[in-house]
Amino acid sequence: MIRQLALCALALLLASAPVAAQQGGGLSGLFGDDDELLPPEEAFPFSAELVAEDVIVARWDTATGYYLYRDRFDFAVAGDDNAIKGFELPEGRVIDDPNFGRMEIYEDPVEIYLRLERPAGESLTLQADYQGCNKPTGVCYPPLSSEFSLAGGVSEAGLGGGSGGAPPGSGTLGALLAGGNVWLILGGFFAAGLLLAFTACMYPLIPILSGLIAGEGARRSGWRGFWLSLVFIEATAVTYAVAGALAGVSGAAIQADLQSPWVLGAFAALFVALALAMFGLYDIRVPTALQTRLDAASRRQRGGSLAGAAVMGVLSALIIGACSGPALIAALAFISNTGDAALGGLALFAMGNGMGLPLLVVGTALGRWLPRSGPWMVRIKQLFGVLFLAVALWLVERFLPGPVTLALWAVLLTGVAVWLGALDRTRRQAGLLVRGRQVAGLLLVGWSLALLLGAAAGGSRFWQPLHPLTRAAVPEEQQTAAAFRDVDSLAELRAAIDQAAARGQPTVVDFYADWCVYCVQLEEQTFPDPAVAEVLAGKQLLRVDVTDMTDRHRELLQELDVFLPPAVLFFGPDGRERREQRVVGFLPPRAFIERTRAALGRGEA
Length: 605
Description:
17 strands; four-stranded antiparallel β-sheet; Immunoglobulin-like; 22 helices; alpha+beta
């Protein structure tokens, strides 16, 4: 009995602590003067601002030693329950909370952007719910609710009575843009670009830049390579920023338009033409009169090829555009929701420079160490010809069937094998270099045969050409890949989600395109995973294939605030999207499972 009374007394004492804090009395009698709690309006200073006709930013300047729970935010507009179209919360830090276990929190100031269904009138009242705690003591405040009257872009805050986020961005980068600190934004996007520079999407730019530098002939030097590379990179970054800003302002998926088969086919043909010139089949020359003028200008400015580097840099923005993933989508979302095309474009420009930094190093090194004349140059030109053909094939494989691209890769590798001397008769006194080339050629012949077998079996994976043959050996009961049903319009998607909600069934929607690199990775690596298939079991799985980017696709993308694929959206049994858990870019199986469970809960996932 005594023990029960003691426990009750302790519980009442702890429960009274937040109340004492709200009344301004603090907890000095309980924890000492050093641990006195602040009143909630001082612990979590809150303000709001109408930053665009249909965008509100809510800010918490959380005091040191305090934190807010990520999943306790909710928002509403007084008198209009459907006024808020959606929001997305930035990523927080996961801790072992003494009150609720593993929780995601915000310890630093946080900004949350809310998208309204329609432009705000002369005034509106925003209601916000949230909850936070004091870190040193572990004492939590009760759920707090505030009302904010906004008029003419000016906010008035007051603690009151209330009800979750930001425009669809992309995690940390979206939150970084929302923060408004220009130097942090530029540094963050530059770092994101630097990381993207080491993905496979950037590899095709190396032979393009190398070909430009190799064509310099006797003028080539380390400094010349540096300036050519710099012009190439800056042209790419500027094009990327301008196209991104226009896309964000207009809501049009410009990058998707550039991925059409006609555009990609035209650029592939250009690279094939350049490759054939490298092989010596013909020389690409401009008319004599124009050549004379260009030579004269080049002698005066020594910059004739700088213009060529700039042109190729602009064209190269097409190649890297499909690989920018979450960083591009974060910037487009920010521009679309705030109208600040200048800041969003500046962020994309910084990202483009980050992506180009390794190219600057490569270009400078090539300008310094590439051989200038003799038989070496013939071999190097032929090597660049092979790389140009590889770039052309990489472009067209975005819209060609997988087996066809595998067969084309087999043809290209067979040609390289013959070029290396795989079929040549080797004399006994041949040196180590000759024999090494021949061994490499024979290995390529073997890989080409594997690619042809994979193509005949319907495969599409360059690094796993025999995957269809090995997969056929798996028992049917173990082939549990998730099956998505195609939908092609907004009306069809809404009807499917509503029908699932009527059954109490969650829905997962995957936005896909053949030209989207990360979409293919999700298709080949994530969705076929048995654990992913298990977590998706029992849910309605829908896929929107926007490869052709029709008007219906554009309407669907605009309505759901999806700028580019890939995007995976989670809708709960109530038919409402769990927007803060939206997947943008590629996620491996384990991370995708965690995101699915966070969106739909373990009971639903």
